[in-house]
């Protein structure tokens, strides 16, 4: 089972079309068809149902998604590791939650890379659920996020205190009809819904990190955002806090795999403690 077949399978699953998958992996549609047929033959299952509208995963195809994604990502990481010049003593896979990627974090990344010239970095962003999963599965070594999953094999350090506050770009008197649910973790989502006793009339769930605030401003809607991330928008008058709405404790953390290089971990934690990220 080769990686090109798995990559093609993932492209077809994501696009819902063998033609679109061919464009994504830069081969002909007939090559996509042949690769999928070979994969199905080796596994002894049918992976897709096809019709004029495109392709849909079968139950077997849905079961293959996770293992295929892990295999392709593992090979990508291996290629990165093996291809590193000799001047790098190790590599670091680093991720941060979308909403944390501000100028302060970018400055920290640049400064820390400069102070660790013998470390190669692989940097990504994502929602907390994916970052937690990738950290647990070994695809990431070190992450910054809200809503961490605490595990025996994962170390953690509080990064800074924050809270989720209800803000609106419309009227504070009518925020209930303009309320949008913004994803900040399942447990916190349940708590917010319970405290507000409110079913969002908009029928909209956002998981866009910092860009969720852009949506609120552009469409004059209301939702919960980390106070630090919207402080400048409140000061500029783009958003306002909804008075008397419940607030929710929402600290950010640095988390890491306990098997990562100890000297590298120490350097990362020290640089974070002395950075704008913790000072702001």
From TrEMBL:
UniProt cross-references to InterPro entries, sorted A to Z: LysR_HTH_N, LysR_subst-bd, WH-like_DNA-bd_sf, WH_DNA-bd_sf
Keyword Coiled coil: no
Sorted UniProt keywords: DNA-binding, Transcription, Transcription regulation
PROSITE patterns: HTH_LYSR (PS50931)
SUPFAM superfamilies linked to this entry: Periplasmic binding protein-like II, Winged helix' DNA-binding domain
Key word Hydrolase present: no
Superkingdom: Bacteria
Example GO molecular function: DNA-binding transcription factor activity
Pfam families found in the cross-reference section: HTH_1, LysR_substrate
PANTHER family listed in its UniProt record: HTH-TYPE TRANSCRIPTIONAL REGULATOR, TRANSCRIPTIONAL REGULATOR-RELATED
Family affiliation: Belongs to the LysR transcriptional regulatory family.
Protein name as catalogued: LysR family transcriptional regulator
Organism (species): Croceicoccus naphthovorans
